[in-house]
C-alpha cells in the first residue's frame, strides 16, 4: 500500500512540475521565442539576402518552391516538399510558440480581441455586418481557432476528386503529431445526452469520422490545455532544404510575360522593417509558387498580382496579367447562431468537443465557461467582446458617444453569474448563399471588401430555423436543466438571453424573439469557416494549378465550394500534406516512394 501511495505522490509531483514548466514557458508571451534546435530554419524576413532584379537569373538564392502563407495548409505542404526540394515559406505574421494568448485554451478569446498590427488575428467586417477574423501567424487558423478536429465526409473527398487512399494516409500523418482525444467535461457530457434526447442519434463515441448522429471529435489541445497547431508540423521538414521567413508580407507574384503564357518566376515581399525583397524560383519547369494564404488572402493575392476581372484591376491601375472574372467569386461562410444556456454552477471553460451531425444540413456544437477574470468582464474592450469569443460593436449609424457609453455601462452591469453557463452553437452546413471578394485598394495589409450574403437563399434560412429548434430542445432537455440547476426556460426567454448580446453590426428588430427567421438573420455570427474565391474549374484546375498561367498553384480552402466536415481544419491540414505528396509523386514518379 505504501508503494502504491508513493507512486501516486510521484505521479502527482511529475504532473505538477509539468504544469509549472508550461506556466514558465507561457510567461514569455509576446517575445519571438522558438526552439532553435527544432525549428532552426525559422528566421525573420530581414535576414533574407536578395538582389533587385525582376528576372529569374543572377539572383543569390532560388527555390524549387515558394509558399506564400505558412498557415494551416502551408506548413504541412512545406514540410512534405522539403523532403526532396528546396522550399521557401513566406509568412506575414510571427511565431505562435511562446505566445500564451494563442498557446493555451484558457486564453482562447484574448487573441481574437487583440487588434494590434502584430496580432495573430486580423479582424475584418464583411459587408453583411458580420465581424470576422483572419489569421496572421505561422500556423494560420489552427493557431486562433477552437481546436476541434474532425475529418471530411467521404462524399466531400469524392466530390473534390481526391485519391481516397492517399487521403487516408495523409490524415494520420497529421493526427499522430498534433491531435488528441479530449476528456469531456460535465457540461459537454450534459450536452451530449441532451443531443441524443433531442433525436440527434446514434451516439458514435470518439471518432474523427464524419458520421450522422452525436460524436466526440479530436482536438489540437492536449490534456494541459496547450495548443498544437499546424506550425508544429514544420518539425517534420528537412531543415537542410527548408527556409521559413516570418514577418514576410508578400505584395505580389512576379510573372514573366514574354512568352505565350504568363509564367510565375518569384514574389516581391517586404520585411518587418518595411524593406523590399524579391525571391525567385529555380529556373526549372516544375518549380512553382504555391499560394496558401487562405480564403481571403489567396484571391486577394491573385488580384494584387494582376489575375482577376480586367475592369476591376484597371480601376486600381494594376497591370493585367490574366483576365479571369471568377477570381474572388463564390465566397461563402457557414452562418452560425448561438443561444445562451445559464447555469448555477461554476463552469469550466470548454471549447468544441462534442458535435451533433443532423441529416437536415445542420451541425450543433457547444462551448462553456468564461476564461477571463472579473476585471476583464467589466473592462471596456472598445469594439471587442470577450463574452462570446468574437468581435462586437454597435451598428455603424448608431455609434454616437452616448450609444458607446451605454454599451460600456451594459457590460459593467452584466451579472457575473451569466458567465457560469455556456452556449449552444447552431451552424449551417454547405450554405447555398454566396458572395464575393473585391479589392478596394492595392495595400496588401488592408482587408479586401468581402460579402457572404448570409441567408440570401431561403433554404439556408429554413435550415437555420430547423437548427434553432433543435438547439432550444437541447437547452430545455432535463439533462441540461438537471446539470445546470436552472429551471426549464421558454423558447422566447432562451432567445431573449441571446439576442441582447451585441454580436454583429446588423440592426436588431423588435420581433427577434417572436420570429425564428428574424432571430437567425439578426443574430448571425461566424465560426470562421469561410471558403471559396479560387474555385476548381473557374480559377484553378482539378490539381489546383491556376488556369491560364504556368508555375502557380493554390493550396488552401479558397478552392473549396463547401467547408469540409463540421470543422475544416483537419481537412485543410490534410490537404497540405496530400498536395505535397501529389506534387512529389508527379515530379519524381516511383522515386518519391509514395
Task: Please sum up the structure shown.
With 594 residues, the protein is of the alpha/beta class. It contains 16 helices and 28 strands. The radius of gyration is 24 Å and the shape is globular.
Radius of gyration: 24 Å
Helix content: 25-40%
Strand content: 15-25%
Spatial gap, N to C terminus: 53 Å
Q: What's the total count of β strands?
A: 28
Low-confidence stretches: 1-31, 52-57, 371-399
Nearest-integer average pLDDT: 85
Strand order of the largest sheet: 8-9-20-21-24-19-27
Sheet/helix structural class? alpha/beta
Large-scale geometry? globular
Biggest sheet features: 7 strands, mixed
Please count the helical segments: 16
List keywords for this structure.
disordered N terminus; 28 strands; alpha/beta; 7-stranded mixed β-sheet; 594 residues; single chain
Can you tell me about this structure?
The protein has 594 residues and is of the alpha/beta class. Helices cover 29% and strands 19% of the residues. It contains 16 helices and 28 strands. A seven-stranded mixed beta sheet has the order 8-9-20-21-24-19-27. It is globular and about 70 Å long. The model is unreliable at 1-31, 52-57 and 371-399 (pLDDT under 50).
Amino acid at each position: 500500500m505504501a508503494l502504491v501511495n508513493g507512486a501516486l505522490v510521484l505521479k502527482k509531483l511529475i504532473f505538477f512540475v509539468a504544469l509549472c514548466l508550461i506556466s514558465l514557458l507561457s510567461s514569455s508571451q509576446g517575445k519571438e521565442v522558438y526552439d532553435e534546435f527544432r525549428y532552426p530554419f525559422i528566421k525573420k524576413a530581414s535576414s533574407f539576402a536578395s538582389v533587385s532584379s525582376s528576372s529569374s537569373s543572377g539572383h543569390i538564392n532560388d527555390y524549387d518552391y515558394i509558399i506564400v502563407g505558412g498557415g494551416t495548409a502551408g506548413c504541412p505542404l512545406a514540410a512534405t516538399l522539403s523532403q526532396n526540394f528546396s522550399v521557401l515559406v513566406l509568412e506575414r505574421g510571427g511565431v505562435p510558440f511562446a505566445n500564451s494568448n494563442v498557446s493555451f485554451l484558457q486564453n482562447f478569446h484574448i487573441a481574437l480581441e487583440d487588434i494590434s498590427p502584430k496580432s495573430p488575428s486580423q479582424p475584418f467586417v464583411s459587408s453583411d455586418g458580420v465581424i470576422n477574423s483572419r489569421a496572421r501567424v505561422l500556423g494560420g487558423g489552427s493557431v486562433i481557432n477552437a481546436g476541434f478536429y474532425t475529418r471530411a465526409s467521404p462524399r466531400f473527398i469524392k466530390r473534390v476528386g481526391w485519391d481516397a487512399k492517399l487521403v487516408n494516409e495523409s490524415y494520420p500523418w497529421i493526427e499522430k503529431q498534433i491531435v488528441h482525444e479530449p476528456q469531456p467535461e460535465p457540461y459537454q457530457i450534459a450536452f451530449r445526452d441532451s443531443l441524443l434526447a433531442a433525436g440527434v442519434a446514434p451516439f458514435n463515441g470518439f471518432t474523427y469520422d464524419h458520421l450522422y448522429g452525436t460524436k466526440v471529435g479530436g482536438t489540437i489541445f492536449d490534456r494541459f490545455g496547450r495548443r498544437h497547431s499546424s506550425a508544429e508540423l514544420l518539425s517534420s521538414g528537412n531543415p537542410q532544404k527548408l527556409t521559413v521567413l516570418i514577418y514576410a508580407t508578400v505584395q505580389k507574384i512576379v510573372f514573366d510575360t514574354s512568352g505565350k503564357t504568363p509564367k510565375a518566376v518569384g514574389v516581391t515581399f517586404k520585411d518587418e522593417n518595411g524593406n523590399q525583397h524579391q525571391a525567385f524560383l529555380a529556373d526549372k519547369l516544375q518549380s512553382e509558387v504555391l499560394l496558401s494564404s487562405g480564403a481571403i488572402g489567396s484571391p486577394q493575392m491573385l488580384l494584387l498580382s494582376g489575375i482577376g476581372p480586367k475592369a476591376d484591376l484597371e480601376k486600381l491601375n494594376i497591370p493585367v496579367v490574366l483576365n479571369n472574372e471568377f477570381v474572388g467569386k463564390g465566397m461563402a461562410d457557414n452562418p452560425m447562431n448561438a443561444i445562451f444556456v445559464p447555469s448555477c454552477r461554476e463552469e469550466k471553460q470548454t471549447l468544441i468537443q462534442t458535435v451533433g451531425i443532423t441529416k437536415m444540413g445542420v451541425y450543433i456544437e457547444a462551448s462553456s465557461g468564461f476564461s477571463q477574470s472579473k476585471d476583464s468582464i467589466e473592462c471596456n474592450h472598445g469594439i471587442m467582446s470577450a463574452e462570446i469569443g468574437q468581435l462586437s460593436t454597435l451598428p455603424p449609424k448608431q455609434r454616437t458617444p452616448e450609444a458607446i457609453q451605454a454599451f460600456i455601462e451594459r457590460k459593467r452591469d452584466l451579472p457575473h453569474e451569466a458567465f457560469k453557463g455556456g452556449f449552444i452553437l447552431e451552424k449551417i452546413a454547405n450554405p447555398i448563399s454566396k458572395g464575393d471578394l473585391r479589392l478596394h485598394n492595392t495595400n496588401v495589409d488592408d482587408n479586401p471588401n468581402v460579402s457572404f450574403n448570409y441567408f440570401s437563399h431561403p433554404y439556408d434560412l429554413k435550415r437555420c430555423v430547423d437548427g434553432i429548434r433543435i438547439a432550444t430542445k437541447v437547452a430545455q432537455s432535463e439533462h441540461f436543466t438537471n446539470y445546470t440547476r436552472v429551471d426549464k426556460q421558454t423558447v422566447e426567454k432562451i432567445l431573449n438571453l441571446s439576442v441582447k448580446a451585441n454580436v454583429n453590426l446588423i440592426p436588431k428588430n423588435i420581433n427577434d424573439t417572436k420570429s425564428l427567421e428574424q432571430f437567425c438573420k439578426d443574430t448571425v455570427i461566424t465560426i470562421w469557416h469561410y471558403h471559396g474565391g479560387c474555385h476548381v474549374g473557374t480559377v484553378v484546375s482539378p490539381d489546383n494549378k491556376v488556369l491560364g498561367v504556368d508555375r502557380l498553384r493554390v493550396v488552401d480552402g479558397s478552392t473549396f465550394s463547401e467547408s469540409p466536415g463540421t470543422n475544416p481544419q483537419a481537412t485543410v491540414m490534410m490537404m497540405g500534406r496530400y498536395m505535397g505528396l501529389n506534387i512529389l509523386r508527379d515530379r519524381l514518379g516511383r522515386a518519391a516512394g509514395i
